[in-house]
Structure to design on (148 residues):
């Protein structure tokens, strides 16, 4: 009667934001599943080269807002807080640039799978928090009049 449930050791790996560096200047950030018409606050620890003490965000999309970039003294990672609007269903790929004082640019590419509003609620990875939810237009403008 000794039934034991064994979980794989790396089960926690799925709850963290995956960051893959491509060379020194491109970070592919995999955010996992998000939900359509939701806005998220995301905290990233980016392993950007230690040559940077101050990073300035350059953003060419209305769907990303970078709050602050903290450069820790130990040159390990830069903490970036940003807001992302999950503006379309399916595969979402948005990017922004962080530029250091020497003019070097680091491209941050955000990847997410965005679920439609009736496809369930995704489990968010650590460091991702929903901060706003836009209601569906259909909910407010239903032409169903109710029972007579």
């Amino acid at each position: 009667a000794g039934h034991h449930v064994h979980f794989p050791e790396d089960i926690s790996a799925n709850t963290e934001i995956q960051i893959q560096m491509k060379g020194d200047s491109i970070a592919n950030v995999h955010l996992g599943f998000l939900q359509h018409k939701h806005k998220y606050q995301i905290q990233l620890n980016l392993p950007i080269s230690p040559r940077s003490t101050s990073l300035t965000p350059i953003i060419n999309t209305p769907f990303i807002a970078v709050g602050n970039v903290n450069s820790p003294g130990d040159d390990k990672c830069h903490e970036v807080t940003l807001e992302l609007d999950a503006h379309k269903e399916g595969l979402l790929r948005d990017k922004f640039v962080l530029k250091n004082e020497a003019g070097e640019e680091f491209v941050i590419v955000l990847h997410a799978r965005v679920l439609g509003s009736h496809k369930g609620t995704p489990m968010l990875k650590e460091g991702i928090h929903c901060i706003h939810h836009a209601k569906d237009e259909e909910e407010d403008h239903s032409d169903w009049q109710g029972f007579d």
